[in-house]
Structures are given as C-alpha cells and as structure tokens.
Fold each of these.
Amino acid sequence: MENRKLTMLMDFYELTMANGYFKDHKHQQIAVFDVFFRSIPDKGGYAIFAGLEQVIEYIQNLKFGKDEIKYLKSKKIFDDAFLTYLENFKFTSDVYAMKEGTPIFPHEPILVVKGPIIECQLIETMILLTINHQSLIATKSARIVYAAKGRSVIEFGARRAHGYDASIYGARAAYISGVVGTSNTYVDFKYNIPALGTMAHSYIQSYDSEYEAFKSYALTYPDSCVLLVDTYNTLKQGIPNAIKVAKEVLLPMGKRLKGIRLDSGDLAYLTIEARRMLDEAGLDDCKITVSNSLDEYLIKELIHQGARIDTFGVGERLVTARSEAVFGGVFKLSAVENDGVLEPKIKISENVQKTTTPGFKQVYRFYDKDCMATADVMTLFDEEIDASKPYHLFDPNFPWKSKEIDNYHVKALLVPVFEKGKLVYNIPSLEEIRAHFQKEFNALWPAVLRLENPHEYYVDLSEKLWALKQDLIKKYKV
C-alpha cells in the first residue's frame, strides 16, 4: 500500500481529452479550473475543507513510467507523440487553495488550478476524490463534535469504512475537525493521531467469568484500565464487577479505574444509573464512554435526556458519513487564455445552481469587529478590497437584497500552493491544521452551526464579477 503509484488513478476521458488537446496543438493553452461544491451535506450550514496535503503529494509524484506508457499503447487510440509527451511529463501549473480546516460554502472556489489545459485535465479525478472524501468526513465530524458539547469524541470506524484508504484518511479528516483519537493504529503510526481502545466482548467471553476478565485486564493495564461492562448484564454484573476490581485489584496498587464503556442498551438510562453506582462507590473520577451506531442527532438526544457520558466513540456513521454519502465537489473550467489574455468561460444551466461563475477568482472572508465571519465575497483575482471603506454586500441571485457594512476586516482565502509547478506552500502539521480549523470554526455564528435549519451563510459576488457573469449569461443564453 505504501509504495502504490497512483498516476493512472484518473477517469479515462481525461486521457482521451488530453490526447485531443495535444493532437490539436492546444495542450499548452493556459486554462483556469475551479473546484467547488453546490450543496452542504445534511442540509447543514457549513462544510470543512480537507485533503489538500494529499493533493500536494499526488501532484509531486505524478509521473508516467514504462508500465503506464505500455498500458496506454495497448489501448491503440493514443498518438505516439502524445505518449512521448506523457513520458516526459512535468507539472508546471499554478495551484491556489484554501487552507485545510477552513469552513467552506457552496459555489465558492476552494481550489484553483491555472496552467496548460492538458495538465489541469489530467489531475481532475484525483483532486476531486481526495477533497470530496476528506471534506465530507471532516464536515460530518465537525457536526458530531459540535453536538457533543465539549465531551470527547473518538473515531471508531476503521472496520466499517469503505476500504483501508477511507479508514486512514477518514480518521485524518475527523481529527482535523476536533475528534480526539481513533481506534485505527495505523493512523497513529502514520499521523500521530492518538490510537485508543481497550477490549472487545470476546476478551470477556474467553474467561470463566466477567470478573476474571476484568481482573486480568486491570493487572495488565493498571494505569489505563477501561472496562467494557455490557457483555452480560450491565447494572447487575458489569458495573458491580468493575467496582469490585477497582477496589480489590487497582486500589491496593495505588491505581484508579479510569473508565467504563457501554456498547449497547438504553444508553441514557444505563449511563445515569452507572454514574450513580460509580459515585456511590467512591469512583466519581471514573469516566463513562459509550458507542453503538452514534451520530450527531443521537448524541444530541442523549445529552437532552440527561445521559451521563464523558466520551463518545463514533464509528460507521462518522467514517462513512452515512446520512449523506457524497460530497458533491466538481471541477469546472472558468477561463482560457487567448493571445495572452484570460477570457472568462461560463456553463449555463436551466438549473440556476448549476450555472457556473466565470473568471479567475479570489475569495475574501469578511469578519466583523468581534472577528466573527459575516460573509464571503468572490471577486476577480486582481480585485482588492479596501477594508478602510464601507463595502456593499448583495445577494447575487436577488441583488436587491443588500446591505452596506463598515468596521470590518477581510482575509483572502485562496493562497498559492504551486507556482509554475514548484511547491511554494509551507505544508502545516496536522496539529496546525487542527488549530486553524478550531479558530475559523469558532468565528462562525452559532446560528450557522445549528444541526437543523441553520442560518444561511452568504457567499456574494463583487459588483465587477456579478456584472461579468450577467453579461456572459446574456451573450450565450439563446
């Protein structure tokens, strides 16, 4: 797995189009492509951008070797000159992207590629599958962590993920959005995300009694003993046996029972009773962890019911984003260069949501005097916003809905990643990405963060970009 070469991980039409560009001698024409998405998963108020580091790794390792060329020759549809070009392929484009962990919103470019059209086209699939997957899981995880209201969340989904890559990169994306650890040991090995876990029911069943299993585990791990208490009868056996081990095995050693875990049953009722029993036994510092097909809605309901839970282990519904299995990121042409001038391009649809925004663009985030995010504005790339002057915001679909703001500051969200094929971006550590997420997430208003019926965060167009879009719609709309 570590040594896989992913050059050919692309849709076949990218190669057929690239061959066509080459044959027509337009493969060096400069083009601009935007990556954006149209709707937020789970009808939420925000999404979270993730996967940029893996996009960078892919681009840096994009080479066509003898095996790839041999395969393409076998298809008998590609020109020899095109295959020679691929043999000598070198990435020379510019890439701009938002920083990983940034909250993102529909229709705004989150990554932009500007360079020879043939290069842009060849990397489309890998960019999309990487960003779509990790952004989906990062978004789901942010919702789950937010629903937990300060309680810890652990990613438990490795065995239910859609393959090993999904388990690895899903855990990475979840960690960006505030999950504190993972059950996946490989992820700890690769990314230093804390691997956490204790025992399964099979461990307890393999002993003559639950007590003997608990005792064995306590003697083996006296400093980190967490016991699974629902194998037989949680309240009549599991918790009494855990208390017995805490007093008869751990206490004489000067150790404390760290926690118990529940994986089934009425979690609200059982955790309330478990907390009472543990406190009465003098184990008020013993933490309670629960798992069992949890998601943000179940977590919210458990808390509403007064469940006494310190940590949530969330598996399949996090790592598969079960309630919304696809993050609909797309890769669309927005400009091409002719005679040294970038000409904006637009795709028009009867569905307003599918009409693209033309041109080489930048995205600015507006923050109020309290550093809370108020709106994003898409502009043409060479536009600058003077924060010392009032700014006119308006809804691009309903331009009569507008307001003028002052006392604000702005930040350009798209930053250079590659310049003429050279990496110019200082790739942050995972901890730095996580800290960036937390800072930007905290800048969103609570109304935007609501799980249900959230406030719509506005993504507007500058007046110059809006006018350009309207002109092109009029030009091409017949």
Amino acid sequence: MNGLTAWLEKYFIPVAGKIGAQKHLVALRDAFIGTLPLTMAGSIAVMINAIIRDLPPAFFPDYDGNTIPVIKEIIGVDGVMWNGTLAVVGIAFAFSWGYNLARAYKVNELAGGMVALAALLQGISFGPSITATLAKKVPDSAAKIINDAQAGATIDGDQLQIGLWGWLKLGHLDANAYFTIMIMGAIAVILFAKLTLANITIKLPDSVPPAVSTAFTAILPAMIALYVTAIIHYVFGKITNGQLLIDWIQKNIAEPFMGLSQGIGAVLIVTFFVSFLWFFGIHGPNVLAPVLEGIWGQGQLKNINVFQNGFEGKKGAEGVLAAIDAGKGDAYMWVRGSFDSFAWFGGSGGTITLLIMILLLSKRADYRAVAKLGIGPGIFNINEPVMFGLPIVLNPIFFIPFIVAPMVATTIGYVATSLHLVNPVVVAVPWVVPPFLMSFLATGADWRAPVVTLVAFAATLVIWAPFVLAANSMEED
C-alpha cells in the first residue's frame, strides 16, 4: 500500500494538481460559484413552494395552496423570484464566465463579462417567425381586427403570418445555455484578452481619467471579438438553413453529455475520483467542479425549472418524473444535489459516519479527540478537520473505506431514485444543511428521501467499522 501511495504521489498527483490549477478550469469553476447567489435564491423560492404548495396534497388530497389567502400570495412571490433567478440563470453564468476568464488572463474583468454575455445574446431567438395555412378562411371582420392590432400577427384569407420581435426565448436564457456559453464565451473572451495583451487597443493620453481610459482600452478588442462570434453565429445559420447555434449545441453536444451522465458508471467514476483526489489532499469537488456543475449541475437546474413550472400539465415532482420518462432532456434522474443528498453526508466521502464509528469503537485517544472536535462541523458537512486532523489524507488504513463507502452510498441512492422509490433532487439546497434534512428538502419535501439516506448512512457505518477496529492495533502518532 505504501509503495502504491508513493507511486501515485510521484506520478498521478502532480498531474491532478496541474489540472486543478489550470486557469481555464479554475475560471470555469469560479464562474459556477459566481452564480450561487442567484441559484440559491431561486432554489429557496422553489423549496418554499414545495413545502406549502406541493407537500400538503400528499396528505390532504383536497388541499390547493393557490386558493388559500396568504399562501397563494407567497406562491406568487416565489414565482416572481424564480423569474429573476433560475429562469434567466444563463445570463448570470455568461457574465460570470466572461468575468472570471478575463480575470484569469489579467485583463478588464467587467468588459470580459459583458463580452461573454453579448456572445450569448447574439445567437438566441428574439422572436418566432411562422407562416401557416389555416383550416379555413378567417372572416374579414376578425382578420381586420387582428391586422389592425399590429401585434406581430397578420391574416390574409387563410394565410397566417406571425413575426414577433423582442420576445426572448427563456429556453435560451436558462441552464440550456450553459454549453453554448462555455464555448462561445470562451472564444470571445480569450480573443478579447489576447488582443488586449497584444496592445491592439485605443490609446488615450495619460491625462484621461483611469475609468475612461480603461473603458476605451476595451473597445477595440471587444468589438473584434464580438464580430468574430457574430460571424460564427451568422455563417452557422446560413449553412444550416436558419438553425440557431445554441439549439444545435444543445441537441448535439449538451444532450449527449447529459445522457451519458445518467449511467451508473459515470456517476460512480466521479464519486471515485472525488474521494481519490481528496485522499491525497486535493479538493476533489473543486477539481471536478467543471464536470459536476457543468453536467450534473445543469441537470439540477432543469429539474428545478420543471418542478416550478410543471411538464405537460403535471406539477411538482410528478412533472419532473414525467419529464424524465419522456426522455427529451427536460429533466434528469441523477443531478448535482443527488451526490450530497445520498452519499456525501458530513462532507466528501460521507466522513460523518467515520466519526460516529470512532466514537463507538475506537480505543485510540487521538482519534477520539479529533472525532469529538469534528462531529460538530461534520453535521454541517464540513470535514476538513477530519481530513487533515485525523488524518484521512494519506492514511493507508482508511484508503479503502474512504473510496468504497461513498460509492456504495451513491449506488443505493442511484438505485432508489431510478426505481422511483424516492423523488429525484428538484431543489438546490445549501451545502451546509445537515444530512437527512438535506435530502428531504432537496427532493421537494419527499419523506422517503431521509429513509434512503438512512439506508446509505447505515451501509457506510458498516463499511467503516472494521477499519476503525483495525486502527486500534496501530500505534498512535
């Protein structure tokens, strides 16, 4: 074991460290983190609606929160909150991605954010244009009223033409935009940064105020970068007979990636590497944030939106399940919060179960002291005191359970969710929410979720127990 650890430390960990420090991946990780204020605000609103609108009917079939004074107003306010957060989270992510990428290149961050946002807006739908033949001729009087309204629709006999402008499609501004933003935003901002660093800018005298000078410096690089992305959008539309690049990326890149993420193999691979990296002291969720947030995080946002708005007439968790069964990419069975709800209780690796086993079985004074200090933070999913204080990092006796326990817990949660024994995660819950309560809230107040968490919790207790007992025979450091 020591030989394997030494080999991995020498050859694998330096590579993993370089990947984790790669500036584009760090910028992408920080871009996701930057959207947290919006995603959490919107998720709290959805969570409140889950509790006051969707949970009571499970116990009281005649309950309708939309007809109850005060309750219906809260539901309405939460809907408005969703409109300004999760419904347009793609806009926030575009700006955050551009800002953090520009910061990685040490150029104007504000301009970088605006360039990435503009690169997104260049390629979205600003209104539908439809020509259709009606089943029969519309009466002249009705046609005159419609035509005189100048609302974007005209009727000539049995020919209907709709040409709306200024109607932004929400499906281009929410989580559906993430992959397009990552690609087009990177092209625009990297080009903007390279031009800025090459001093292809407008020079102003030193007497000009810094704020004005900084803004003018960004004009030429931003204009060139945005012309490049505009040409890409335009040429793509010409080649594909009017198809938008964002729709093509969503169908041919995003959806296949999302589909692959739903297999148990992909889920367990990510679970493995999070623990594996942590064992060597590298923050696994941070290194893998581009994957966790870019794929499973996008799936979670889709679930939240369907939970809020429904799917084909079905509301709440029922709507999410219907969307998953439809298989159109509107909702997903396993998402970012699923890991936290069913496997990473107490922090990555589910380490709170180790602390419980130490307090129950360990005879080592040093382990028990760390467990007593770490149990409090562990309740709120903070496990750094255990990782580095026990330690788990580079501790051979705990390598196997630290890898195996979360994979078993993940499998239990995955099977329960895929068999519809518990609702999928439909709410983004702050990571400091204690276990059991987290899974309850994350699944839209599904009482079965804490039961599944308890089963996974118990399984990891059993896995940790023999290794804690084995550690009793080892000398204290």
Amino acid sequence: MKRIAFVVCLLAVCAAAARAQESRQDISLSGTALIEPFKASSTDVLVNSTTAYGGLASYRFMLTPTSALEANYGLTYENKITFTTPQTILSPITVLTRTQEISGAYVRSFVFKNFNPFVEAGPAAVIFLPILNSGTKTLDAHQQTEVGAMYGAGFAYEVSPSFDIRVEYRGLVNKVPDFRESSSTSGYDFATNRWWNISEPVIGVAYHF
C-alpha cells in the first residue's frame, strides 16, 4: 500500500513538473506594414516614404508566466524613400528600399482569461538595403544600418493551449537613413541629422511549445 501511495505521489509530482514546463517557448509569424513618417530637417532635406509590407518572425522564452525575452527578425518587400534637397527640388531622388529588422525585447504580459495584453521594449538594428534598379535614381546609394530601439503594445487571443492570435503596434526609433549620400561621389547630400519613429502594425499567429 505504501509503495502504491509512493508511486501515485511520484506520478503527481512528475505531472506537475511537466505541466510547469509546458509552453515555456513560442514562435510567431506575422504580417507587417512599415510606415515611415515624413521628416524635414535643418539641412533643407525633405524625406517622404511609401508604406512597406513584409513579415516578422519572433521567438519568445518565458522567464515566468507573465514575463519573457523575445528575439525578432523582420523583412519588407520594398518601398520608396524619396529625398528632396535644394539641388533636386524639381526632381526628387527616389531610392527603392528593402528593410530588415533585428531586435530583442523584454515582454511583460497580463492575463485576462483568453486575452493576454502585453508591452515590450528593447534594442533594435534597422538595415536599409537599396535596390539598385531603374526605380532607384542614384546608383551611389549604399546599404546602411541604424541602431536604435523598439517598443510595442498589443494583445494575444488564445485560440487553444498551443495557438494564439497576436495583434500589436510596434515602433522602431532610429536615425533617418541617408544611404551614405552625405559624402558621396554623386554630389547629393541626403543627411537630415534627425531621428524618426517608424510605425509598424503587426498581426500574426503564435505557436507555444
């Protein structure tokens, strides 16, 4: 009888430990829109951008049931970043661009039944990749990496113990790129000496394991 009781207790402890280790990690895939704001500078450079669409892959490791560390990688298809300078006021210069994001964050979640609101923040690197084709009006544009910060707030709706739907607003704060055209052989100067806040609405699906 004692052996049976011991086995039952042991199984209960193992089941509790296994359950405590469930869903310590998750991965998510999301669709994104990258909205870069209009920016005017003290150097008489005006920057306009079209919206870029792409995807975001994220990995979270749960430190506690309500806090986690997150790693992100994002990539957009392409958009146009247009520079107007005193020299090009009649014919602004467009650079077709792909944008990559590499970021990490601390995530704090709040549990309300199936809804789990969360906030997050951390460092980010945004890589601006010029596409050198007929859509880019200066072939002297170069790849540029700007280091800044990422922050966000959203909610996850639990569809099942393994899946949830996530909706979030994210912001990327970094310097406005000039594609190293501030001291180039082309004669253009795209430097703004400004920072901007890139808005990034996100919707996707996460899988817990």
